[in-house]
Specification:
4-stranded parallel β-sheet, single chain, AB_hydrolase_fold, 15 helices, Lysosomal Pro-X carboxypeptidase
């Protein structure tokens, strides 16, 4: 989720949210480059106010915030000594990463949890189509899945289920492990249950017993509105699906995406902006001699890890990954139930940051002499 920065929370320019989001000319200031420039101003101001000009600063973020953290270190090395970028898919732009990377990992997570569960989900899409083609098919599906309002087409149900599986995989955190919960529901359904009855059982296991599912009424948050603009302007992450997942194929087609965004905002997205402004292509070659002091942390069960930096680039730009980790898990609050591998991941990150700070103070001492 986007971090708090201009246009999110209370950081609203132009006097009001309505005015700030009115059109592309006011929305034009709503971007990552402006956001990290703001952070540079704020950190500098705070250090001056506290007479702490030589106090080292480490920036930390997860997901989009993780991208911002790594880019901040690269753009403002004089402001931040280092960055911890958790689950930051900085390589999921401009076709550096295969577009089906995200859904391949979602599928792998489910397959590893349960082969039968994986196969049931894989078969369910054609079953939904089959059910829809019957007389009163949509109303029967609406009844079977206890939808909050009648389905107007099968895509509503499919999109909802895709979102459930993706979210379960992305946030497959211990100790609950949502993927295991979904599959427990699917595999635990009666042996004579139909494929769609099993899918519904998985949904109930994951969401809990509710009065209805699918098309649930929800308030559109400022995060949803803001992130839609950012993905339609600069943060163009080309996620698509090929034939090798448990989902139906749905490739990312840039021309269609551009038209869709143009119809909403009147301006086309800039698919190459991120790699032009921050880099990304040949990242190991470029950053090996240029950058320093960035930790890229990833859990390999996180679908976004496919667009992350998974190998060390240099002695000080390092990758810390865990086989069973999920999205931003390492920067969440520690719990008694945290597995040992997660505790160790955090310890490694803290040790690296301490090394940066120790070296900084040694360099500062030498510099002042």
């Amino acid at each position: 989720m986007p971090t708090q920065h201009r246009y999110y929370g209370k950081s609203i320019p132009f006097g009001s949210r309505e005015e700030a989001l009115r059109n592309a000319s006011t929305l034009g200031y709503f971007n990552s480059a402006q956001a990290i420039a703001d952070y540079a101003e704020i950190i500098t101001h705070v250090k001056e106010t506290l007479h702490a000009n030589y106090s080292p600063v480490i920036v930390i973020g997860g997901s989009y915030g993780g991208m911002l953290a790594s880019w901040f270190r690269l753009k403002y090395p004089h402001v931040a000594l280092g960055a911890l970028a958790s689950s930051a898919p900085i390589l999921y732009f401009d076709d550096i990463t295969p577009q089906n990377g995200y859904f391949s990992v979602v599928s792998k997570d489910f397959k590893e949890a349960s082969e039968t569960c994986y196969q049931t989900i894989q078969k369910s899409w054609s079953e939904i189509d089959k059910a829809t083609s019957q007389p009163s098919g949509l109303s029967n599906l609406s009844e079977e899945f206890k939808t909050c309002r009648p389905l107007s087409n099968s895509s509503e149900l499919k999109n909802y289920l895709e979102s459930v599986y993706s979210t379960a995989a992305q946030y497959n955190h211990p100790p609950d492990y949502p993927v295991t919960i979904v599959c427990g529901g699917i595999d635990g359904a009666p042996s004579d249950a139909s494929i769609l009855e099993k899918i519904y059982a998985g949904l109930v296991a994951y969401r809990g017993i509710r009065s209805c599912y699918v098309n649930e009424p929800r308030n559109i948050s400022e995060t949803t509105v803001g992130w839609r603009w950012q993905t339609c302007s600069e943060m163009v992450i080309p996620i698509g699906r090929g034939n090798d997942t448990m989902f139906e194929p749905d490739p990312f087609i840039l021309s269609s995406y551009i038209e869709q965004c143009r119809s909403i905002y009147g301006v086309p997205p800039r698919p190459h902006w991120v790699t032009s402004y921050y880099g990304g292509h040949d990242i190991k070659l470029i950053l090996h001699n240029f950058g320093s002091n960035i930790i890229f942390s990833n859990g390999l069960r996180d679908p976004y890890s496919t667009g992350g930096v998974l190998g060390n680039i240099s002695d000080t730009i390092v990758a810390v990954s865990t086989v069973n980790g999920s999205h931003c898990l390492d920067i969440l609050f520690a719990k008694e139930s945290d597995p040992e591998w997660l505790v160790m991941q955090r310890k490694v990150e803290v040790r690296i940051i301490k090394q940066w700070i120790t070296k900084y103070h040694a360099d500062l001492l030498a510099y002042k002499k």
